[in-house]
Every structure is written in C-alpha cells, then in structure tokens.
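**Backbone shape codes:**
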Amino acid sequence: MQFTVRLPDDYKGKVATAAKRMGLKKSDIARLALKQFLDEHFTKDSRTPFEKVKHLLGSTESGIKDLGQEHRRYLVAKIRKAS
C-alpha cells in the first residue's frame, strides 16, 4: 500500500539526517516510526493488572507505619478535612 503524508518543515532535515546516518531510505524511517507507534498503541497487552503496576509497588513511602491496616481511617479523616 502506498500513501502520502504531509510533514512539518522541521521534520524534513531530521528525517533526511536519520536516513543518511542509518543507511536507510526516508520511507524506511517512516515505516519504522509507524511500526513503533502501532506496536505501542494497538498491540494487545496480555499482562495482568498486577504485572502492569508491580514495578511501582514499594516505590514510595508515606511515613505512616500503619497505613496498610488503617487506610480507611486515614482516608475518611482526609475526606472530612477537605470538606
């Protein structure tokens, strides 16, 4: 399939430079960029919700020692304080 894409002027030099450095055609650069975009936005992610966030777990600290056990109490107090 062939299609035409209009690019901003500032892309012209960047695409040409990238193609020259990589020894590719400008159309190859466009295909690589499109492939990366489609892979990132349209590839089905089969990871569980836990697997998606496990790198975040334990990455911050609240300073409250019993937050895990008393989270509801802290949440209710914060809501009451805000209103």
Notes: Residues 9-82 form one domain. The two ends are 59 Å apart (CA to CA).
